[in-house]
């Protein structure tokens, strides 16, 4: 999906994924002549193209960094795939073939993992290898009808990734706290990207739905609504009483209330779905909520609807099984966010470097 976001002006030289299902999906959409399926920890630079790449992109698994997980951090097995990626970058640098730019993408939980030490570990490594570094927390909601906050750490060999020396006033507090973990040497190579996405989203959740999808039996809807908090039930009742048509999204979550864990069904009617997650590990699927003429109906969001909420076109080939498709989408990155990042930071930095050369 990062490749889709970068666009046709970029040419992919090498791709890697350990997950067999994701490799099949990648091959169906892009071909597999440059796709390597091995464990990244087992790769060497002999497996990589001989050209010096403009960009290396790393989206390592998020489970060990997510607030919903056990938070083992970068030292844990899955999110620790970053170190396999970084070992290759170091080897390329030693061989004089380091990529001109690097992006490390993950959940925003990387900022707070081990009190910011994991974020600092990534930035320190980039800075030590001669990269100027910045980071942005971007929400897909600025582009598509989905609330999906992700962290993008950007490194560039050219000192051209940011035009702002002062701290970004819109930077999340977690980023500012994490920066205090950096060494003075790394801070000298820190840069702020002053730009922020403008309001680009033109679609709401109602615009991406399949009108042919079948709603659940009324009894199932009642079970879901019974899990809402009293405050949410009151808000829902007000929408129903007000008449008209409303489309929202809901999600089952475990909340701690008065020291007790409770399963809640949480609804939103702001035009967005919640963050689409992989269904593995017991995560709940997004639920579509439709209110019309005093009637409330619910159903699971389809895989194609979830893909649209990511900004994927309908010609993007999804796995046939809904569970596999949702796993692919839930682990993915929003292409319109990547396109904005490329236009704002990556392509200008690379163009300036070429001009300077």
Descriptive overview:
It contains eleven helices and ten strands. The protein has a four-stranded mixed β-sheet, with helices on both faces. A four-stranded antiparallel β-sheet has the order 8-7-9-10. Helix 9 runs parallel beside helix 10. The longest helix has 22 residues. It is α+β, with helices and mostly antiparallel strands and 357 residues long. It folds into two domains: 222 residues, Vaccinia Virus protein VP39 (Rossmann fold); 88 residues, no CATH class.
Summarize the structure.
The chain has 357 residues and is an alpha+beta fold.
The total count of strands amounts to: 10
CATH architecture of the largest domain: 3-Layer(aba) Sandwich
Which assembly state applies to the chains in this document?
single chain
Named CATH topology of the largest domain = Rossmann fold
Strand ordering within the main sheet: 3-4-6-5
What structural keywords apply?
31% helix, 11 helices, four-stranded antiparallel beta sheet, 357 residues, alpha+beta, four-stranded mixed beta sheet, Rossmann fold, 10 strands
């Amino acid at each position: 999906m990062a490749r889709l976001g970068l666009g046709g002006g970029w040419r992919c030289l090498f791709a890697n994924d350990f997950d067999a299902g994701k490799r099949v999906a990648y091959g169906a959409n892009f071909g597999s002549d440059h796709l390597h399926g091995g464990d990244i920890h087992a790769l060497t630079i002999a497996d990589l193209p001989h050209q010096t790449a403009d960009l290396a992109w790393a989206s390592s698994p998020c489970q060990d960094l997510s607030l919903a997980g056990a938070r083992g951090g970068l030292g844990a097995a899955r999110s620790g795939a970053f170190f396999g990626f970084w070992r290759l970058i170091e080897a390329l640098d030693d061989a004089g073939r380091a990529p001109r730019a690097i992006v490390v993408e993950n959940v925003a939980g990387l900022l707070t993992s081990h009190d910011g030490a994991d974020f600092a570990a990534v930035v320190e490594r980039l800075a030590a290898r001669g990269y100027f570094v910045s980071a942005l927390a971007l929400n897909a909601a600025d582009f598509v009808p989905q609330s999906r906050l992700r962290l993008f750490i950007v490194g560039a060999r050219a000192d051209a990734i940011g035009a702002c020396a002062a701290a970004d006033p819109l930077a999340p507090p977690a980023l500012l706290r994490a920066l205090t973990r950096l060494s003075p040497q790394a801070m000298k190579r820190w840069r702020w990207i002053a730009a922020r996405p403008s309001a680009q989203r033109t679609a709401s959740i109602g615009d991406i739905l399949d009108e042919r999808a079948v709603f659940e039996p009324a009894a199932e809807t009642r079970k879901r609504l019974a899990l809402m908090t009293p405050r949410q039930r009151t808000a829902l009742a007000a929408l129903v009483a007000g008449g008209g048509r409303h489309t929202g999204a809901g999600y089952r979550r475990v909340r701690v209330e008065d020291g007790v864990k409770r399963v809640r069904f949480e609804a939103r009617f702001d035009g967005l779905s919640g963050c689409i997650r992989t269904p593995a590990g017991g995560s709940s699927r997004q639920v579509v909520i439709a209110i019309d003429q005093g009637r409330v109906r619910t159903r699971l969001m389809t895989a194609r609807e979830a893909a649209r909420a990511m900004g994927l076109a309908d010609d993007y080939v999804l796995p046939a099984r809904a569970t596999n498709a949702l796993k692919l989408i839930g682990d993915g990155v929003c292409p319109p966010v990547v396109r904005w990042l490329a236009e704002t930071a990556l392509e200008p930095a690379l163009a300036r470097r070429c001009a300077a050369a």
